């Protein structure tokens, strides 16, 4: 076996084993006793249900990840990347179109492998715990829409990237970086108006106490937005959420209908204030900047490995190409990506604490914030006491009990 490939596989399988170990630790760390902070909020039956939900989703995730790793390792060892390349090259297309067809086939393969897992998760696991509200018609329509949108956006972007790296030599990564930055900003701007409505129905929040409170708070803190909308989240799940989306004159507040049904006006105001805090404290801009810097760094490293003969030989390729270099680089970038992920998750958790503090200080509603967090956690069967290593590696939000403790400390 090529030593380069051996190193890649060791890292690839090593990350899988490490991730599996973290999930095992996390599933074993749950306490059989309801935490004191949630006494009277959780009853014994629902708390036991949340533990079963955690263990079942963890077990299912492990099975899915294991199958994905086995399929990928076999595909590599059996020369799958080269066999597919030989097949696509037999079509006698240009190098650019050959690359597009090659990567589209791989994308479709990944989608088809993930499809049965998504179906089982939705209609067996989520259904059995009372979360799923989706019908099979909605599920399949979502799947088809996702494919169409992925192709409509992904194929032109892919063609542009391949052309840049074929045409601009050593400066290609800079051109690609500028291009991807523009595409990302355009998508953030148009998504609320053109993409999200393809999947969900958005309606202006009806007049009443809630809308008056939200608008008065936004006016007081000089936060402008295009509108406040309710989203039919209940079309797919009973889980709740709220978020801001878009920027500029497309910035809007979105509340799940399930969130409005289950929370008081004060709780919703506290949740809104938290989301607004991310904007006021520049968290959105910081995250976007870090994302852009990371993508630039990744593209620069990618440029160093384009058309690398040793890398192509490691995967058993008969021909060296830019499009296969893009794929193989993903394996090399995995360790760096893991480090970047841990750092970005740490920053995200810090931002969540800061947004909580902003919400409490500007609304004067610490009790509403706490009760809202508790209700969200109970309704979504969230893990109240995740293992610290799981939090450190994967969590973008602090555990709910840590957030509540921080809010109480503010008081």
Descriptive account of the structure:
The protein has 411 residues and is mainly alpha-helical. It has one domain (3-199, 280-410). Helix content is 72%, strand content 4%. The protein has helices spanning 3-28, 44-77, 80-89, 95-128, 136-167, 172-195, 209-220, 257-262, 265-280, 283-305, 309-314, 322-363, 366-379, 388-394, 400-410, and strands at residues 202-204, 227-231, 242-245, 252-256. Strands 1-2-4-3 form a four-stranded mixed β-sheet. α1 packs parallel to α12 (322-363).
Apparent shape: globular
Largest sheet: 4 strands, mixed
In helices, the fraction of residues equals over 70%
Structural class by secondary-structure content: mainly alpha
Q: Work out the oligomeric state of the chains in this entry.
A: single chain
SSE order in H/E notation?
A: HHHHHHEHEEEHHHHHHHH
Overall pLDDT: 92
List the helices and strands and how they pair.
Blueprint: H1 3-28, H2 44-77, H3 80-89, H4 95-128, H5 136-167, H6 172-195, E1 202-204, H7 209-220, E2 227-231, E3 242-245, E4 252-256, H8 257-262, H9 265-280, H10 283-305, H11 309-314, H12 322-363, H13 366-379, H14 388-394, H15 400-410
């Amino acid at each position: 076996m090529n030593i380069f490939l051996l190193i890649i596989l060791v890292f690839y399988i090593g990350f899988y084993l490490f991730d599996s170990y973290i999930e095992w630790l996390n599933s074993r760390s749950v306490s059989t006793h309801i935490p004191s902070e949630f006494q009277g909020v959780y009853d014994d039956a629902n708390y036991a249900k949340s533990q079963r939900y955690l263990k079942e989703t963890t077990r299912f995730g492990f099975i899915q990840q294991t199958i994905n790793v086995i399929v990928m390792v076999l595909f590599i060892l059996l020369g799958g990347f080269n066999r597919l390349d030989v097949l696509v090259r037999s079509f006698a297309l240009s190098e650019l179109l050959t690359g597009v067809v090659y990567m589209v086939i791989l994308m479709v393969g990944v989608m088809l492998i993930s499809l049965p897992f998504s179906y089982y998760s939705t209609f067996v696991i989520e259904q059995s715990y009372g979360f799923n509200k989706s019908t099979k018609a909605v599920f399949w329509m979502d799947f088809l829409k996702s494919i169409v949108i992925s192709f409509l956006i992904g194929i032109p972007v892919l063609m542009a990237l391949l052309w840049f790296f074929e045409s601009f030599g050593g400066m290609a990564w800079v051109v690609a970086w500028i291009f991807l930055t523009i595409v990302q900003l355009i998508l953030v701007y148009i998504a609320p108006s053109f993409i999200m409505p393809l999947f969900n129905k958005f309606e202006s929040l009806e007049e009443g106490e809630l809308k008056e409170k939200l608008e008065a708070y936004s006016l007081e803190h000089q936060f402008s937005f295009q509108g406040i909308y309710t989203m039919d989240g209940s079309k797919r799940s009973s889980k709740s959420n709220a978020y801001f989306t878009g920027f500029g004159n497309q910035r809007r507040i979105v509340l799940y209908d399930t969130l409005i049904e289950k929370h008081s006006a004060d709780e919703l105001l506290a949740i809104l204030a938290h989301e607004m805090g991310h904007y006021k404290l520049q968290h959105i801009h910081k995250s976007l900047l870090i994302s852009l810097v990371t993508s630039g760094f990744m593209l620069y490293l990618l440029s160093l490995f384009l058309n690398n003969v040793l890398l192509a030989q490691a995967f058993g390729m008969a021909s060296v190409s830019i499009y296969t270099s893009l794929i193989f680089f993903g394996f090399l970038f995995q360790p760096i990506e893991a480090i970047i992920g841990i750092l970005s998750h740490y920053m995200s958790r810090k931002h969540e604490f800061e947004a909580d503090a902003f919400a409490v200080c500007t609304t004067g509603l610490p009790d509403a914030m706490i009760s809202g967090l508790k209700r969200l956690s109970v309704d979504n069967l969230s893990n109240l006491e995740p293992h610290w290593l799981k939090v450190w590696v994967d969590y973008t939000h602090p555990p709910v009990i840590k957030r509540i403790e921080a809010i109480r400390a503010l008081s």
